[in-house]
């Protein structure tokens, strides 16, 4: 998944174990390396070396509302990056679909609700555990 660059601006919505280190974490910059809990949480990897971190932990689950997204890492030219992430289903059964930029219909034909992330769209990742197989297949067609 191409990294979304962001800064932790708050921890009001994040899990308790993340909030417990809030005084240290707020203001840190890093990269989103994975989407958790069906899109509500981001696994956020801090830029700083692990040696300096509380308990040596470099990756923290952070709620999207607590992140200020300011960029995506460039240099990725994978064709799937042109698709946004859309979800169907709920809870642990949610499936990740590829949604073209100007529609709410996924490549496999399902109606999606977009992930509201500070007005930002999360790119579809064909390698995600819960990626829709049909969307992956269609996204990779030449
Ligand atoms: Zn799909």
Model description:
With 142 residues, this protein is mainly beta. The protein is built from 3 helices and 8 strands, in the order βααβββββββα. The strands form 2 sheets. A 5-stranded antiparallel β-sheet has the order 4-3-2-1-5, with no helix packed on it. A 3-stranded antiparallel β-sheet has the order 7-6-8. The model is unreliable at 74-80 (pLDDT under 50). Strand 2 (29-36) and strand 3 form a beta hairpin. It folds into 2 domains: 4-72, SH3 type barrels; 79-139, no CATH class. The chain is 11% helix and 30% strand. The structure holds zinc ion. Zinc ion (ZN) binds next to helix 3.
Q: Short description, anyone?
A:
This protein has 142 residues and is mainly beta. Helices cover 11% and strands 30% of the residues.
Q: Look at the structure and give the mean pLDDT.
A: 79
Number of helices: 3
Distance between the termini: 20 Å
Fraction of residues in helices?
10-25%
Question: What's the shape?
Answer: elongated
| Rg calculated over all Cα atoms | 16 Å
The CATH topology of the largest domain turns out to be SH3 type barrels
Strand order across the largest sheet: 4-3-2-1-5
Give the bound compounds: zinc ion
Number of domains: 2
In CATH, the architecture of the largest domain is: Roll
SS class: mainly beta
The residue ranges in which pLDDT falls below 50 over 5 or more consecutive positions are: 74-80
CATH class of the largest domain: Mainly Beta
Q: Largest beta sheet, briefly? A: 5 strands, antiparallel
């Amino acid at each position: 998944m191409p990294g979304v660059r962001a800064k932790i601006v708050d921890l009001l919505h994040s899990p308790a174990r993340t909030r417990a280190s809030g005084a240290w974490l707020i203001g840190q910059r890093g990269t989103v390396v994975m989407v958790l809990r069906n899109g509500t949480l981001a696994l956020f990897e801090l830029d700083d070396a692990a040696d300096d971190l509380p308990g040596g932990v470099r990756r923290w689950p952070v709620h999207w509302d607590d992140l200020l997204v300011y960029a995506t890492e460039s240099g990725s030219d994978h064709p799937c990056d042109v698709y946004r992430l859309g979800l169907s289903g709920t809870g642990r059964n949610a499936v990740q679909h590829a949604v073209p930029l100007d529609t709410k219909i996924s490549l496999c034909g399902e109606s999606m609700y977009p992930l509201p992330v500070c007005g930002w769209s999360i790119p579809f990742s064909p390698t995600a555990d819960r990626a829709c197989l049909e969307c992956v297949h269609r996204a990779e067609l030449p």
